[in-house]
Model the fold of this input.
Amino acid sequence: MSLPRDPSDRMQRGVPQGARRLGDFQGRWRLEREIKDLAAGEIMRLSGEVAFAPRADGLSYEERGVLSLPDGRALTAVRRYLWREEGGRIVVHFDDGRFFHSFDPGAASAEAAHFCDPDDYEVRYDFSSWPEWSSRWRVRGPRKDYVMVSRYRSALRS
Done:
């Protein structure tokens, strides 16, 4: 069975909004991100693309973009994860295989958390406007205090 290449394909075929599965993320997504450093009072922005590509054990997530810093510098940014489907949930692993978090992709709003001593990471995914979706991370720790909002939309429909 072939997975849809356009992330919005299942919606066009009449699949109910809350019925997202791992394969629905496969494809290319435009990414816009804002990172608010609450301690420093600064804002950074990232613009780029995410590719979800099939592999034997799930989907690889590769994010590439340009991060604009408050001082005007621009850096190339890359992130990689592995997304798997287990028991109706999506389980996210770091690219080295360590567990990161899991969430219910069928919910309009799904929450998860990750503790990385001494920092707390809390995320809320918003799928209410699928196939556009977002994640909002709240990160707190002795040297971290920021909110990161990422917005995704199909790169094929941009």
